[in-house]
User: Which sequence fits this backbone?
């Protein structure tokens, strides 16, 4: 894996991704079939029912086969630690992609029910296949939709999956970076967070979520207590990134 770590921008799969960037915002996929190929690879190569091995197999695919736009192995450790500290019972991920983030959350929070919202049905199908192979399909659910759809997805989470005031323990943001702040505010409007809830946001530097970062800085010590973890973008070591871990303090009186 050394060459892939040192020269991420020279990898053919990264160059293909750059060409397919326009597909990501509209379809949720790179456009070259790598997401479906990952599902096949996991089923063929990972031990069925072995959550650790499925996660490791996805990482191996991302390093050796095709670059993936999930949180990755190194930043994933930050997500793991945040989830363990929160000891959650209800977790919400925004941006399923191929199901990797939810796998890490399922491992770090074995007592939690995990819901993951995904724009693309094709990605949801891959994720469900991966979760079933890992043996966590009984506690990880993909909801196809977006938080910014006028309330339909939020209403579905409330009516069908038990979301409500003070119920959400961990929120993981790893979807459209421009939607991080608006989607968080939508949940705050509904009162879903409680004092001690944790919000983890990936890719705050690359590709960047400046409005979200500015909001968390403005709310430091007021509504949230935020730690900015300096790290690097997924599956390489050259490009810097930030993961923000924010603990909700509640409305101050």
Assistant:
């Amino acid at each position: 894996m050394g060459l892939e770590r040192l020269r991420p921008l020279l990898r053919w799969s990264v160059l293909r991704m750059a060409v397919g960037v326009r597909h990501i915002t509209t379809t949720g996929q790179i456009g070259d079939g790598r997401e479906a190929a990952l599902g096949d690879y996991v089923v063929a190569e990972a031990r069925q029912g072995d959550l650790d091995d499925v996660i490791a197999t996805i990482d191996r695919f991302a390093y050796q086969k095709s670059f993936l736009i999930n949180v990755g192995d190194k930043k994933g450790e930050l997500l793991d630690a945040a989830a363990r500290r929160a000891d959650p019972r209800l977790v919400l991920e925004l941006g399923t992609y191929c199901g990797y983030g939810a796998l890490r959350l399922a491992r770090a929070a074995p007592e939690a029910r995990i819901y993951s919202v995904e724009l693309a049905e094709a990605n949801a199908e891959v994720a469900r296949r991966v979760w079933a192979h890992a043996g966590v399909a009984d506690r990880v659910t993909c909801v196809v939709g977006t938080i910014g759809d006028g309330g339909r997805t939020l209403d579905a989470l409330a009516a069908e999956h038990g979301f409500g005031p003070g119920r959400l323990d961990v929120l993981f943001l790893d979807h459209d970076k421009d939607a991080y702040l608006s989607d968080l505010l939508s949940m705050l409007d509904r009162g879903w967070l409680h004092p001690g809830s944790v919000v983890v946001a990936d890719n705050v530097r690359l590709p960047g979520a400046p409005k979200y970062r500015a909001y968390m800085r403005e709310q430091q010590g007021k509504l949230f207590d935020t730690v900015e973890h300096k790290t690097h973008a997924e599956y390489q070591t050259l490009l810097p990134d930030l993961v923000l871990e924010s603990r909700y303090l509640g409305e101050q009186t």
About this structure: The two ends are 52 Å apart (CA to CA). The longest helix spans residues 72-86. The chain has one domain: 70-248. The chain has a mean pLDDT of 92.
